Amino acid sequence: MKIAQIAPLAEAVPPKLYGGTERVVSYLTEELVALGHDVTLFASGDSITAATLAPMCRQALRLDKSIGDGNAPVFLMLERVLRRAHEFDILHFHLDYMPFSLFTRQPTPHVTTLHGRLDLPEIWDHYELHSQVPLISISDSQRRPMAWANWARTIHHGLPENLFRPVAGAKPGYLAFLGRISPEKRVDRAIEIAGRAGMKLKIAAKVDRADRDYFEQRIEPLLKLPHVEYIGEIADHQKAEFLSGAHALLFPIDWPEPFGLVMIEAMACGVPVIAFNHGSVSEVMEDGVTGFIVDGMEAAVAAVDRLPLLSREVVRRRFEARFTARRMAEDHVALYERLVRAAHPRMQAIAAE
Questions:
Q1: What is the CATH number of the domain that holds 12?
Q2: Packed helices 236-244 and 261-268: angle between N→C axes, nearest 10 degrees
Q3: Which of the 8 DSSP states describes residue 281?
């Protein structure tokens, strides 16, 4: 198939550091190429891919200090994709509702993966107005605020099978928090859980500009506690060592997490997860197998004592069975083929007019 992947421009594909959506787009794109498909990736010019790269700006917008209006390159990209749409069998967008108005007015089938939260009433009108656009959810729980939308399929994220592996000889010596420091991720809970369990906590996380005040006022003072070590943002090549050295990853979220990529990153390293039961957690985690799903602080602290009951080898095997990028790519190809078959009569009718 000739497939266009249209990525956000905020980060490179893959991102240099943090960037969940762009990371997943990269994993999907590379696996589609490995499966023999002809893929064009519309992304920032500093992206790296085995697909054909169509550079839409010089570098990731987050890194380009010369950009004053971040919307301008994105809308220019949409126009460029539109002018090339006839070259592809299917267009796969990762831009939320932004493409809808343009691309419902042309015949090439297109699909959009929604990567973020949907419990925002101000966005619902877009999906109601463009109710014919097929959507991919990254978990069934993500759909709940918009259960009425035109969902084509849920496709869970996946990682390249050998991207992260357990580090041989690693001796777990702490609990880990990985990802982003923000109110909904609740690193403050992780700090309290580790403290009450009598264990060290290592935090490898970025702080977005929007969360800087929260970090400085609420979290930074907690980093001075003797059991806490703040590492900062880390790259992919550092994650296997960081996670393999942990007894468990703490995922004490306080929001409807659409997926939670860090959970399967930990699983790939054979590391169990202690996660609060919100959003996708009960879909991704297998309670008592790949970690523990908890409903409060007391249960989270108690779960730390139960970690020796879990097999790190089994955690890794469950990752291989459920969350590889190859499985993710094959799921997408099956959906693409179905959408292309359904679109052919419509495309022929438009051509005949």
A1: 3.40.50.2000
A2: 60
A3: H
pLDDT band at 18 (very low <50, low <70, confident <90, very high): low
The pLDDT tens digits of the residues spanning 22-50 come to: 999 999 999 999 999 999 999 999 999 99
Has residue 267 got a pLDDT over 60?
yes
114, β-bridge pairs: 137
Please give the pLDDT value at position 111: 98
pLDDT at 166 over 80: yes
Domain hosting residue 127, numbered range: 2-158+324-352
Tell me how far apart the alpha carbons of residues 100 and 121 are, in angstroms, rounded to a whole number: 18
Give CA–CA dist 78/136, Å, rounded.
19
Candidates 153, 197, 200; CA nearest to 175 is 200
Q: Which residue has the tokens 């393999």?
A: 244
Q: What is the dihedral of CA 343, 345, 349, 351, to 10 degrees?
A: 60
Q: Which residues pair with 249 in a beta bridge?
A: 176, 273
First to last CA, the chain: 26
Tell me: do 24 and 126 sit in the same domain. yes
Residue 166 falls within a domain, yes or no?
A: no
Q: Looking at residue 235, what is its pLDDT?
A: 86
41 strand-pairing partners: 5, 53
The count of structural domains within the chain is 2
**One-letter amino acid identity for 5?**
Q
What pLDDT digit, counting tens, does each position of 100-115 carry?
999 999 999 999 999 9
Distance, CA of 156 to CA of 346 (rounded, Å): 29
- Which pair of structure tokens corresponds to residue 277? 């039961």
- Residue scoring higher pLDDT (233 or 310): 310
| Residue 337 maps to a domain | yes
Are residues 287 and 209 part of one domain? yes
Q: How far is CA 30 from CA 40, 57, 157, 238, 286, in A?
A: 11, 21, 14, 21, 28
Q: In 3-state terms, what secondary structure has residue 42?
A: strand
